[in-house]
Amino acid sequence: MESFTTNNEWTDANLVRTEYGETVSLKLELKNTGNTIDNGGKLYNILPYDQDARGSTGSITFSGINAAADAVVWYATTTDLESYSDINMDTFDPATRSGWSKDPPADLTAVTAFFVDFQTGTIEPEESEEIIVQFKIPEKEYAQAEQTAYNQFKYTVIDNAGNKVTASGRTKGFSTSAYT
């Protein structure tokens, strides 16, 4: 599930109105709705960029991520990224890929994607793991047009019985021109 906030009130609307100069927080939530423990989840997120296939426009930039302490976050600064349909979450290892690092770059606007490995972390039934991602909307005088970003992520989890779930989150967006 994805939800947004610009004013500390979370919403799960599909498109959220934002203002120029704001920082938008996006909550990516992996919730265990089953009755067994989920183990070692992984999450892959290609960040929105101008003219991407999801319909993003403008120069909205990535400005940070907060994940659980036991999670390892990898940052990509390459444009050579696997699509959501092509990535194999079982075998993908950012440590073996050019342009990926566990250390965030000094300039976070260079980040093009991130991968979170919850490693040995578990999600108990009816509990969740949350990742908060921040995006910066440019000031109006620096924006060339309306700013819209659509985000989506792919994840996989395995429960104690060995059952695996791999799916993609819904595409959600935020925009300086949205009407909510």
Can you offer a commentary on this structure?
With 180 residues, the chain is mostly beta strands. It is 0% helix and 41% strand. It is built from no helices and 14 strands. The strands form 3 sheets. Strands 4, 6, 7, 8, 9, 12 and 13 form a 7-stranded antiparallel beta sheet that branches. β12 (154-159) and β13 form a beta hairpin. The chain is globular and about 55 Å long. The protein starts with a strand and ends in a 5-residue tail after the last strand.
How many distinct beta strands? Answer: 14
Spatial shape: globular
- Number of H- or I-type helical stretches: 0
Tell me the β content: 35-45%
Largest sheet: 7 strands, antiparallel
Given as residue ranges, the uncertain stretches (5+ residues, pLDDT < 50) are none
> Class by helix and strand content?
mainly beta
> How big is the Rg?
16 Å
Helix percent reads under 10%
Instruction: State the end-to-end distance.
Output: 19 Å
Order of helices and strands: EEEEEEEEEEEEEE
The overall pLDDT, averaged over residues, is: 86
Q: Which key terms come to mind for this protein?
A:
single chain; 180 residues; mainly beta; 7-stranded antiparallel sheet; 4-stranded antiparallel sheet; 14 strands; 0% helix; globular
Which helices and strands occur, and which strands form pairs?
Elements: E1 2-5, E2 15-17, E3 23-31, E4 38-46, E5 61-66, E6 72-76, E7 100-101, E8 113-117, E9 122-123, E10 128-136, E11 148-151, E12 154-159, E13 164-168, E14 172-175
Parallel strand pairs: 2-14
Antiparallel strand pairs: 1-3, 3-10, 4-8, 4-9, 4-12, 5-10, 6-7, 6-8, 11-14, 12-13
